[in-house]
Amino acid sequence: ADSLFVSEYFSQSAQKLSFYSWYGNAKLFHFHVPEDTVLLRWLLQASRGKGPECSSMEITVHFRHGAPPVINPLGTRFPANATVRPSYSLSLSLASAVQNTTFVNVSSPAAGDWFLAAHLPQAAGRIEVKGFSTPCPYMFQADMFVLRLTDMPVLEPGVPTPHTVVSPAKPLHVKVFVPKHAAGMRLELRSCVTSEQKACAVRVLLGSITLPQSFQRILTCTGNMSCSLALDSPPWEKWLQIMVESLGSANASVSLEMLASFTVCRPGSASSFLNFISLNQSQAGARPGSAGAAGSSAGEAPHNVSGQRSSCLHTQPVVREDLDVVSVRYRLLNGPSVPVNSLSPTLLLLNLNTGMDSGGSLVVSLLLNKTSASLANATVVACVSPASPVLSLNATRNCSTAFSQGYPLSVGTPSAEATLIVLYPQSDDWFLSLQLLCQKGQGECGSAEAKVSVLAYLTPCFNDCGPYGQCSLLRRHGYLYAACSCKAGWGGWSCTDDTKAQSISAQNLATLLLTLSNLMFLPAIAVAAYRYYLVEASVYTYTMFFSTFYHACDQPGVAVMCIMDYDTLQYCDFLGSVVSIWVTILCMARLKKVLKYVLFVLGTLLIAMSLQLDRRGVWNMMGPCLFALVIMIAAWVHHGTKRRHCYPPSWKRWVFYLLPGITLAFTAISVYAFMETNENYYYTHSIWHVLVACSVAFLLPPRDKHKKPWAWSQKLTCRYQICQNDREELYAVT
User: Fold this and answer.
1) Which CATH class is domain 504-699?
2) Does domain 5-149 have CATH number 2.60.120.380?
3) Given this model, what pLDDT does residue 719 score?
4) Helices (H), 335-454
5) What share of the chain is helix, strand, coil (3-state, %, to 5)?
């Protein structure tokens, strides 16, 4: 009946989309689908601004169950040994309309975490100065509607249960709980009859839909004969949904009997008491009187293992050790080496079901230590799978279970080491299954045993993104996940793609250009000192010093040198640049000394405050420039009015100094604001340094007439000094 269904609505706030250059540009949405959900509907709403800067745009949305989607919009390479499966995605077009609304339906969705990631196309790479242009806002919002069955019937294992499908429009929903250590499941339908006494036709769907890959099983039954479906390795300790649809006429009901049975595989392992002793000894270390206990436990463990050869699998105890956010280490209690035989698989449990482990990378490494001398051609095959282990490694090597696809590994005599990297592993219990295989069959292996060292851990970023990347911890509400931000032209998920990477010589050239171009401030410093503008010369020296070492520290590659904290160098560089413009324009105004120095200090304090508020805002530079220009123009008008002559009065000053200086300044601003990109930054920004420094040397006014240039004092050999009398002589006119 309809009253048995409950609809629920979940919504998250809209996010402003960004052009894609790394995973941090993708906006993540995290939802939780409750149990017994039979229908999931996404409402995707995309919109853009109405300004002239807005154009048609394609928005890409990726879906995944259990973990954030692994995407690759740039087509870069993933690290070696990494497993990548394409995500389910769709595109939303914003062409003539300013809004796009799309619905996505998922029937029988898997319960748990669902993730959506939305982004714009690839970024153009242009460096935009904040405030010079207004980017078009592209917004995206995802809402989730679920239809949940409140009292879904439970199918008890081993007990035939009668059920009725009312009509094709109202399918039957039941669920069954899969116990732990279930090696197989068999679902059987029998005694199928219709109300119209016609041939029975039903379709059975087992399992839930997951994206990007769905392993839902479909069984079609026709006639009165019973039909069944067998599954290997169903998901342990989970509810399995079963939906039965009638394929008959619209008014006919179907009655049938359902029976679910499980094959349980009981493991053989060391006793919990021995595991507890070994755990205490490994944590506390050797203590007086504990040598005997350690010897007995170490001697009893192999005996216990050999006694359990007849079991269908052998489990090894594993301890999960949380190190940090999205950082876990798995430690084997019986040592780093795991005994592997050919009679039954060895199983290790890797717990990743906390809900906060799916934002990193799971790394599993195997190293073959020793094998029997007669088994030179033997191979240890391993499978890493979520939800349920692979228990039939000798029969198949594709690592598939009932509702998931695992990841294969193998080590042998030719290649004794293997590594697997699972990017963004889904939140679940993960299993590592190992078994010894022989080329001529299991009879060749006999009772042989191989030793395999297992290293398993969860890390935020594999290899910490390498030397050309930075691992960033991202957050969406309370969910944390990590991603790599690459530099120096490197790309890829872990910054291992060197297709567009800068060479070492190119990195050295970029560093030299950005640092040595600041030496062009030396002529401006010399001119300022020669004309007695000592405060201005000090400001230019400060700017040259910090700009040089800031760019030496700001390099993306290996040619980096930081003499102090990066943030401090950046702040000092920005402060020196703006203050240099401020003091230069005020010096051109020819104000009285007291007023000029008061404006120097007051302006520097205000600039320091504004940079602390917003370091990259365009008005932090344009504001002081415009205010200083207003003061300079007012002072020049005052001087011209007082002298009744254009100021500055000399045409040579205008032609040979002011006009070239103004041209250089405007060219520098144009290069800085409109020409810089990520690819040409190292030489366009170097041109900015050169043009600004040269413009300062041209724009500085000449020294005061009553001040003479610097000169060495004249000294006589007799060590008497001739002193110049600067006293003005007064003449009396009679």
Assistant:
1) mainly alpha
2) yes
3) 53
4) 442-445
5) 30, 35, 35
Kindly state the average pLDDT of the residues 157-177: 89
pLDDT reported for residue 64: 94
Q: 441 or 532, which is more confident?
A: 532
Report how far residue 603's alpha carbon sits from residue 595's, in angstroms, rounded to the nearest whole number.
Answer: 12
pLDDT band at 729 (very low <50, low <70, confident <90, very high): very low
φ, ψ for residue 595 (rounded to 5)? -65, -40
Nearest in space to 427 (alpha carbons), one of 484, 360, 473: 360
Question: Which residue type, as a one-letter code, is found at position 575?
Answer: L
- Collect all residues with Cβ–Cβ distance below 8 Å to 204 and sequence separation of at least 6: 187, 189, 218, 219, 220, 221, 229, 242, 243, 244, 245
**Has domain 161-264 been given CATH number 3.20.20.70?**
no
* Measured distance CA(38)–CA(171) in Å, rounded: 11
User: What is the pLDDT, as a whole number, of residue 320?
Assistant: 93
Residues 6+ apart with CB under 8 A from 283: none
Residues 6+ apart with CB under 8 A from 509: 682
Condensed to tens digits (0 to 9), the pLDDT of residues 29-41 reads 999 999 999 999 9
Domain locations along the chain: 5-149, 161-264, 314-459, 504-699
User: Strand, helix or coil at 653?
Assistant: helix
Q: Which two tokens stand for residue 18?
A: 């960004």
The upper half-sphere exposure of residue 125, i.e. CA atoms within 13 Å in the direction of its Cβ, equals 8
Question: Among 155-164, 187-196, 342-351, 566-575, whose mean pLDDT is lowest?
Answer: 187-196
483: amino acid identity, one letter: A
Chain Cα centroid distance, residue 592: 56
Phi-psi region of 302 (alpha: psi -120 to 50; beta: other; left: phi over 0): alpha
**Across the chain, what does the average pLDDT equal?**
84
pLDDT at 71: 94
> For residues 52 and 39, what is the distance between their CA atoms, to the nearest angstrom?
41
pTM equals: 0.82
Beta strands 346-352 and 313-316, pairing class:
parallel
Are 314-459 and 504-699 the same fold in CATH?
Answer: no
Radius of gyration of the chain (CA): 38
- Tell me the C-alpha distance between 461 and 429, whole Å: 21
DSSP state of 169: T
pLDDT digits (tens, 9 = 90+) for 259-299: 999 998 877 654 443 444 444 444 444 433 333 333 333 33
Burial of 251 (0-12, 13-18, 19+ CB in 10 A): exposed
| CATH class, 314-459 region | mainly beta
β-sheet bridge partners, residue 392: none
* Distance of alpha carbon 308 from alpha carbon 302, whole angstroms: 10
**Is the distance from CB of 127 to CB of 678 less than 8 angstroms?**
yes
Buried b (16+ CB within 10 A) or exposed e, 34-48: eebbbbbbbebebbb
Q: Is the pLDDT of residue 20 over 60?
A: yes
Burial 693-730 (b: 16+ CB within 10 A, else e): bbbbbbbbbeeeeeeeeeeeeeeeeeeeeeeeeeeeee
Which has the minimum average pLDDT: 105-114, 169-178, 628-637, 723-732? 723-732
What string of DSSP letters covers 550-588? HHHHS-SSS----SS-HHHHHHHHHHHHHHHHHHHHHHH
For residue 216, the one-letter residue type is: Q
Amino acid at position 400, single letter: S
Residue 228 has pLDDT above 60, yes or no: yes
Tell me if residue 526 falls in helix, strand or coil: helix
